[in-house]
Amino acid sequence: MATTTATITISSTDLLTDELALSSTASLTTAGTSTGVTQASGLSRKTTSAAAAAGIQANVLYRASDYTAEKANKVYIKNTSTTAAEFFTVTLDQETIGRLYAGDWMFMPWIATSGTRAIFTVTIAATWAAGDTWEFDGVTLVAASSTVANIAAQIDALNYPNWTTTYVATEATIIFSARYASSASEEVWVTADGTLNTASNGTANISSSAVGSKSESDITIRPSVHTDMTYECMLIHE
Amino acid sequence: MATTTAAITLTSDLLSDNMSVSTSTTCMKAGTTADGLDQMDYGLVEIATGDQFDLIGATPTAGKASKLYVKNHSTDETYYVEIMIDSQDIGRLYGGDWMFIPANFHDANADIEVTAVTGTNKIEYALFHEGTALVAS
User: Fold this and answer.
1) Angle ∠(A198,A200,A205) on CA atoms, nearest 5
2) What 3-state DSSP class applies to A224?
3) What is the fold of A38-114+216-237?
4) ipTM value for the complex
5) I need a labelling partner for A112 at 20 to 30 A (CA). Which of A72, A202, B53, B135 fits?
6) In chain B, how many domains are there?
7) Which pTM was predicted?
8) What's the whole-number mean pLDDT along residues A31-54?
9) Could you tell me which residues come within 8 angstroms of residue A121 by beta carbon, excluding any fewer than 6 positions away?
């Protein structure tokens, strides 16, 4: 079993009358057990910058939909800046947790409560011809044959930047699921969202769709200045 | 000026190579390098299951560099407290876990709230801050 520990030491010789020395070590375990956590997204480092203050954007550190909710996840973030006035504002969903000033670090549990992902189903039907195309999410399918099941398998095999697919062999339907739960997915997908060019009367109708709902606990950080600021972060999760 | 340092060491054999991350910060007032946080609230409380309680009311000055330490002293690994800020669920502190975060207290609703689950949890907390809005008697 992997052993991961987090030790904090808070000390001061002059804040109180007596010396302050708090120290605690936690063995990071999976929720409700004594078994060590088994997964981590390793320590990473990123520098943020923008052309001007008006261009400052929040950076998404971790998307809740990528992780299991309501577990014993832990997040570490550090502002490596050495300029005292520079800070990152750390936000969970819309709630500001606090500001990490130069050199500050934080370590907190993370609930990772996601929303739901938008989904829709595409059915390949009628008469297709090899060379017909269907474009969606910036990805273009070029039919290799006229068999609808083969075309559906082709669509499933492609990689979409914002969607994943589910497909059962020999069937003519593909289920698309949004990669992320977000308010941007709160719309109903319609046939017109895919662009079909067919030499015959082939169809790629969307037979059902469902809206998503936004994530409730994505972690974002926003730099206070547009000039270079660097942060480090790591997620230990289940 | 008071000098308070907070250090963390993360170690793990989870990866192919052993991991060890260590860093330390001196807890300063917002935007300075010359003036440390000089006020502190410290406590140990038992939180019974059921209701949600304010661990820290949002009285410290907003938009500062306050730091909050919370530890769950429960020894039963199934015990945990839900940590919330302004009703936003942050995460779960299981028995033995601790957290250390900047605390913004951006408005009167930005309390640090805890809810005990499974059983009564004993919670230690320390808030380092720049000042609070004292309540007139």
Assistant:
1) 60
2) coil
3) Jelly Rolls (2.60.120)
4) 0.94
5) B53
6) 1
7) 0.89
8) 93
9) A173, A174, A175, A176, A206, A207, A208, A209
